[in-house]
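Hi R.,

Here are the chain sequences for the assembly we discussed:
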Amino acid sequence: MKLRVKFSKHGVLRFIGHLDVMRYFQKAIRRAGIDIAYTTGFSPHQVMSFAAPLGLGLESNGEYMDIEVNSLTSSPDFINALNAQMVDGIRILEARLLPDNAKNAMASVAAARYTVAFRKGYEPVFLTEAVVDDFFGQSEIIVTKQTKKGETTFDMKPFLFACAFDDAQNTLTLIVDASSAGNIKPSLAVKAIYDRNHAEFNDYALLITREETYLNAGTQEVPRLEPLGFIGSDFG
Amino acid sequence: MRTLALSDDILLKVEKPARYIGNEVNSVMKDKDHVDIRFAMCFPDVYEIGMSHLGIQILYDMFNRYEDTWCERVYSPWPDLDSVMRERNIPLFALESQEPIKTFDFLGITIQYEMCYTNILQILDLSKIPFHACDRDWDCPIVIGGGPCAYNPEPIADFFDIFYIGEGETQYRPLLDLYKACKKEGCSRTEFLIRAAQLPGLYVPQFYEVTYREDNTIASFTPTVSGIPGTITKELVTDITDTTYPEKPVVPFIKCTQDRVVLEIQRGCIRGCRFCQAGQLYRPVRERDADSLKEYAIKMLDNTGYEEISLSSLSSSDYSRLEELVNFLIESCNEKKVNISLPSLRIDSFSLDVMEKVQDVKKSSLTFAPEAGSQRLRNVINKGLTEEVILEGATLAFAGGWNRVKLYFMLGLPTETDEDIRGIAELSDKIAMAYYDTVPKEKRNGRVQIVASTSFFVPKPFTPFQWAPQCTKEQFLEKAYTTKRAIMEQLNQKSIKYNWHEADASVMEGILARGDRRLCEPILRAYQKGCIFDAWGEYYRHDVWTETFAECGIDTSFYTTRQRGLDEIFPWDFIDCGVTKAFLKSEWKNALDERVTKNCKEQCNACGAARFGCGICTVPRITNL
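And here is the predicted structure of the full complex:
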């Protein structure tokens, strides 16, 4: 049976990298006594996969991992058992049973929604609702990003699904492509806004929270973003 | 949520920020307003090394069981953070509370190897604690050192208020009670230290005076305060089954050197290898009861979620109920999908059988530590491993599918000749030969892989070799070349790979290991010139050390290559580790006579440890007087 587990990651957990979070969960699952399935072979390991790696320094309310279990009682039992093993900064939010034919978490990821706040003393004075609307209203947004092979320049617009500024909260909300094929880092989009307004960009100014990770419940042509747990169901 | 000592911009800039944030599973948080004593426990090396150390885990657990004490951890900031902390004047902090070390009552430093001495100064410096104990007042924590290097604390004597000689489980409670009483009475720091110096096993260096002869050896070593002992006897736990052991060890987020549950099955060793300091310091051998170990194993696995468990001891094969314990672990670990790692096991049919059950034979390799290449030299060092036993073990293993062998040797052992060194190559060749004789061509999976590694021998205090001259760097390197050439001459040389260690650091280790108080000054100067992380090849600066010794007018050969007289007073002679100097002397003589001494299970050799009245010493055996 495949489960999709949603969790949040805050506070000092921002400084724990993706691979270490995986190692952390492998141990937590053992401590919680969850009847997880193991691969066969000489060095069996837990059947577990994560949706989308979260960069160092980012917080999240919408992380997902898939695990396979041999038996289970109920969603609340599972959540409570695992939460009893969590350290400060990481909470299990939901656990949903997946249909047998579900694609794994990583392959399912289509998009992610981020909230970008600004560190004290680094608030951009130029940012307003109008400035951001103007930015998002462009027909193409040419950006340059660093890759392993060097720099590439491309049009970000097709990968940027929503972009809005909240004047009252002084926060940006972004929905960007987070699939393995077209993943956009939120800071790249924010940098493009700064660049368009000739403002000096500093990565450190941003306090980024991933709010949700989405799959595409619609079609290629008419996408419909739903949280990654959408295809699962509560159990027990 | 806790406030971190380091700001986000620093944590995002340094390598592995998880080293500095605490919050790990099973780390202990307490309300600082509800404890009397704040204890910072330090391993003066990087987090991943320090977190792998069992001793600290035991003491961390013990202290935190005390309701009036909160024990936290601190490790050496890696050079990247070190420079940021200096630049921005950030004081060193403990992982749990993230509060400055200077505000603690105690700073306990475990001293596991000589090459960490400058890191101790880094810890003091970043904590803003004066380097010299005599310059500290009640604004500073009591700095207390322990661990194997505390058995010759003299090269770092100036930097510590107290050294704790021996096993930590016994005297900390009385020390903490004394501290509380002294604080209540409003005692001076000096008064507290005088009273601490009267507790068993505690050494307060500032109350002892050393005088030297013209030849630079020690003339006298005497207490300067009345009522404190001239000899410090090591502390030890007589019944180690009955002592505390961490059921819930801290589980780090990042991968550490020791990434598993560690079960200490016994302390001490019956073997008496003459180069080995641990084998003498931790006598007598004391076993933990197998039934309680089984319970610990299950609890610790359940409480940590580790995927692997390892047995810890100096020589696991000598544990009397090993087979029963290992079979229990195999059974319960199989259920839990947990691996078992079994270091320091003698290769025989039992261990091969176990390894076959718990490890992937194709991936694992066999390890032998003959330490010396010839039987003659193995007799000198009292390493009771014969060529016959090695070849038998290897043949068994080859028949069982293994085809990789690791061999560990030392170069520069007392009385070593080129003939002994060639023995390393010849033994390696014979093992290769055994493979080709045992495994028929069609069953071979390529060539047998033999890796022979040599380290350079460093004589240590409290061993029979404490009188032995150490080799010079040139001699060391010559010996490594001789080994290399001898291996090249072997028939199966293509199956043998040879590794040797760097020689400079071994010479340095030798200076510090048998050093005296006069080394405090060059150690501090070398630190002030930027030496830290000397145990890390990439940071070790031999040129700076050499220059510093010269500036301080110290002839380092006095500590290394000099032939020591049998009646010389050593800097560590004021410590009584149980084993007597007379016994070590007779062992030194036995070594030169190439005479083997039986192990503690075969007969009692009257080493002196029997006076502790515990462990193997209470088992009736023949006594050799």
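The radius of gyration of chain A is 19 Å. The interface with chain B takes residues 11-13, 15-17, 20, 23-24, 26-31, 33, 38, 42-44, 56-57, 85, 87-89, 119, 204 of chain A (CB under 8 Å).

Let me know if anything looks off.

Best,
T.
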